[in-house]
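So, can you check what follows?
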Amino acid sequence: MTNKIKLEQLNPEKMSEIKVSFSVGISKINNADIIVIKFSGEYDSDDDAHYMYAKGQFGLMAYQPMGAILDFRDLEYYWGDKMDIVFSIGVGQYTDSDFPTALLIGDRCKKAIGTLVHDDPNSIELATDKEWIFETLEESWKYIEQKI
């Protein structure tokens, strides 16, 4: 008598409706590659956070930049505590020290990001009060250049 093993085919792209794209630029200060990982769509569940984290880590491993900007300007995010795992993309990536990462936010997520990073659902503090969160690409780029 033989037991048959039944496997189900998985497709990680069906895990989430979030779209992810990668762009790279070279720092004029230190000639280092900086990757911009752009997330767009509507954050709907904790599965989205896991998917975003996995895709972000994939981008770092595939392109091996010296710093990363997580671009949330086209992401609708209103709730979900698991989003904080996305902020850890790149931590411990190449060395024991933190990999330089900045978060770029827009109108569709900045209030919810603010309540998440200040650990208070009623917080009126701005997300950009944190040194690593910005509303412009230029500010986040400068931050990464300084950290590399």
The longest strand covers residues 33-42.
